Task: structure prediction
Amino acid sequence: MKSFGYVRAGTVQEAVEALAAHPGARCLGGGTNLVDLMKLGVERPGVLVDVSRLPLDTVEELPDGSVRVGATVRNSDLAAHPLVRDRYPALSRALLAGASGQLRNAATTGGNLLQRTRCPYFQDLSKPCNKRTPGSGCGAREGTHRDHAVLGHSEHCVATHPSDMAVALAALDARVELYGGQGARDVPADRFHRLPGDHPERDTEIRPGELITGVVLPAATASLPSAYRKARDRASYAFALASVAAVLDTADDGTVAHVGLAFGALAHKPWRARRAEAALRGAPATADTFAHAVDLELEAARPLRDNGHKVPLARNLAVDVLTRLAPPARRTRHLTEDS
Result:
């Protein structure tokens, strides 16, 4: 591991000043991903800014009924918090589906959002990877890519984002709060991460010198029926092959009044299913309707040689999650050849 400098920040302003003073510095929270990448030589920061002791470790209800989660709140604490468990069950379930209990006790909200892909070509310095070394090529495109992207990928990168939490935040219409040299701003959670395009080395919309200070869960989706489902190779401690977070509210006549739908493990970022959502609003909350809408969304899928299985897997997960969220009286049996 390359030697590095260390700065312990006591305030948000101190952290931002340290980041500005040391271009290329990285923030250290739980370190569950960053330290591993430093050991591999993938990340080589000259300075680590320790943000673990910043006063950003609370979950609080705001006057408008929304809930603010500080950036240093641990994943295990967030999953168990009554405000999250009761009002935003999809987020609680997504957090509990990620990693092991020991890692959840260390990982933070901000760090979870900033974790990097688990693509083996990214983690192996002997392999080409445009995300790690721009212009070197994408080894996964013609190599081993069973777990890689089917949506939104480019010729430069087919990696997927590994976070479970971020998928739930996208479906719930959460916002990510940032603070930097130009002051505070926030961005929608489903736009915080980027598709690869021509610059796969840029994972997020965070600007140089900015710090994640928190996440705001809106009052509008509080207490609405929501769920998170994850398909993986083994029962625990595995990254998703496909995952789905959904929020669904129905009107008295059984039509869809509100829907939020996001896929994980299918793209370089949590994939907000905007086309499916548009097709569902005002439509009957039935399995047939859900299947049609999800099929419309997944028409954009472009599977690679060895990962076509992800499309029917994601489709069936989404239809099942939405159907279970609908009022029981509106559910209908829906069987297809690939169910």
The chain has 14 helices and twelve strands. Confidence is low (pLDDT under 50) at residues 332-339.
